[in-house]
Design brief:
The structure is a single chain. By secondary structure, this protein is α+β, with helices and mostly antiparallel strands. The protein has a single domain, classed as Alpha-Beta Plaits, CATH 3.30.70. It is about 20% helix and about 20% strand. The chain is built from 3 helices and 10 strands; from the N terminus they run ββααββαββββββ. β6 and β7 form a beta hairpin.
Length: about 190
């Protein structure tokens, strides 16, 4: 059996909008899109490269690590794959409730946790850009960790506490349950079973 440590944080963002009825029915893609665009805008200092892997800073960039997760240098086992699975998950309501407040779950795994302040700044910037085709602006009212502690007050951001239930398990098998749609690829091909 193998023992592993997997640091994980989970936060809950409560946000409101003046026009919840104008929000798209499915919030995942618009949220991920505006979050990614703002994280890249705030993080990227070398815009001349078309791909993050070409940039000499790609191992140390919030956007590059979270959205174009590079394979660690010197890891022989994964040499065929330039990217790893992304170390974050957004959990919006499956269907937009089209009413206030809206609760968004955000999970960061492993090294991505160090970029939590960048993630929050990107989500704050995303408020003004809005969601969906109508660019419905939203306001983040609170950010709480998995224990319910408020993390953001008056421009002050506290670090979230780690979820400890995943540390030091002896395991040989892991089962994942997907509660939202997911796309899986293996060797560049879509996995269908």
């Amino acid at each position: 059996m193998n023992s592993f440590e997997l640091p994980i944080i989970r936060v809950w963002l409560k946000f409101e909008t003046e026009a919840p009825e104008k929000l798209p029915r499915y919030l995942f893609s618009p949220l991920r899109g505006v979050f990614g665009a703002q994280l890249k805008r705030l993080s990227c200092v070398a815009r001349k490269f078309s791909r993050c892997l070409e940039c000499p800073l790609h191992q140390h960039c919030a956007y590059g690590y979270i959205f174009e997760t590079p394979r660690p240098e010197g890891v022989e086992r994964l040499r065929l794959y330039p990217y790893l699975p992304h170390p974050f998950a957004l959990s919006p309501p499956y269907l937009s409730p089209r009413e206030n407040p809206i609760i968004l779950g955000l999970t960061l795994v492993g090294r991505a946790i160090q970029y939590f302040p960048h993630v929050v700044l990107a989500l704050m910037a995303a408020q003004e850009k809005g969601l969906g085709r109508e660019r419905v602006p939203f306001v983040i009212k609170s950010i709480k960790d998995h224990q319910g502690e408020e993390l953001y007050q008056r421009e002050n951001l506290k670090p979230p506490s780690l979820i400890n239930k995943f540390s030091s398990y002896e395991t040989t098998k892991l089962t994942l349950i997907f509660k939202t749609p997911v796309t899986l690829r293996f060797e560049g091909k879509l996995v269908r079973r």
